[in-house]
Amino acid sequence: MRAPTIAPWIAAALTALSGCKVGPSFERPQTPAPAAYTEPAEEPTAPEAFAQRIVLGESPGANWWASFHCAQLDAIIHLAVAHNHTLASARATLDEARELARAASGARYPQVNLTAGAGRQKYGKEFLGSLFVLPPFSYLALGGAVSYTIDYTGGIARSIEQRQALAEVERSEVDATYLTLTGSVVTQALTAASLQQQVDALGELLAEDRQNLDLVRTAFENGSVSRVDVVTAQSQLASDQTLLPPLRQQLSAARHALALLVGQPPGEWQPPRLQLTDLTLPRRLPVSLPSELAHRRPDILAAEAQLHAATAAVGVATANLYPQITLSASGGFQSLPAEQLFSRSNTAWTLISGVTAPLFDGGRLHAERRASLDELRASAARYQQVVLDSFGQVADLLDALTHDSELLAAQTNALSAAQTDLQLARESYSEGNSGLLEVIDAQRRRLTAQLGLLRAQAQQYVDTAQLFLALGGSLPDSASS
Length: 481
Prior knowledge:
The longest helix is centred in the middle third of the chain and has 67 residues, at 155-221. By secondary structure, the protein is α+β, with helices and mostly antiparallel strands. Helix content is 58%, strand content 11%. The protein has one domain (20-110, 168-326, 364-480): Up-down Bundle (Outer membrane efflux proteins (OEP)). The protein has helices at residues 7-17, 71-83, 85-105, 125-128, 155-221, 227-241, 244-261, 290-293, 298-319, 364-430, 436-470; strands spanning 53-56, 111-121, 137-150, 284-287, 324-335, 347-356. Mean pLDDT is 87; it is low at 1-16.
């Protein structure tokens, strides 16, 4: 007997039943698009030499850190991107998500399997009764089986869509990890450079303290000063020496952090010795428009992809409420060992259609759908909050840079005044018009102003880097590959 021709009615059924998708379709959410990040600025109070110019409507370059024009910094970042384990883990997780999305896509196609078997079997009396007891027999079988689930509700398509959206989440996570890594390298490098200059400045101060002590001792031996001046100079040297170990410890911690970022033990890799003078502060800062920020920042894109996945999950939960229709067919050859397996008389086939409809599940499926709707609302709220947080972060950094330039100008003036004060105090002491204490006080004011200037310079550099990160940077094509 010939198997009936089933292709026409299967094709017709698939055409008729695969035209709808239950659940909401994803649409990119509306986001606030303010005209500016901050309120209109007041008249600038910092001199032009210390200020940075904001260029609204432009975006940072792919290698945003190149704006600092430091080849050594570039080399550290490239080393970190190549060897950082956190970035490697994020990329592997992305590969996993993409493969799971490809695996889910296989459900939309018919599933074809090859079957083969050989065995020996004996039936008992319950099979045909006591009058027809079959003797034990051996058999051979070879064939194939095909099964196909008709996705007339679009549940399978929604599950594929959900997996693809989750892969997009991981891709954005890789981009975020990349930006965090490059930002951490720049921040630690700037911190180390500033601390190195502070250590050098304190070393110069200690050299001056020792010189003062030698001069006072000589003067004491000559009888021109009292022992009080000697003790005062010794006390000042000892006090200044206590400032050096904490700075060196902070410097070591920053250099160790750089080693970890490049995937190396601190004892086996030493970063280059940088100073702030080795970098150039960008005077022109490209800042993308607020309306473009939602399409650039990885954390916003990840929240959008999470919202997409939550939308697709509603479709999956809705499809589970409908009957599931499955078509299956099998065909092949079955024979006894003494017979020829591949003969027309030994062909066998089956054609089965099945419908599974939920009747009672204790409310599980409806509860799962309501839960998916709750998650959809939660994802939408999280997305909007991430967008608002990003606007606030950019606004804070823009204001910080304004205040950085004001502080830098003030610290520059303070250092200039402190240097003049120290020079006058030394001249007065040399002429015998004042004591050593006035010189030491002036020297301390000069050190405070010098360290304050170095910290203000470093903060302006760090806030500049943080602004580039808050704007989402510009990722190279290889970041997620």
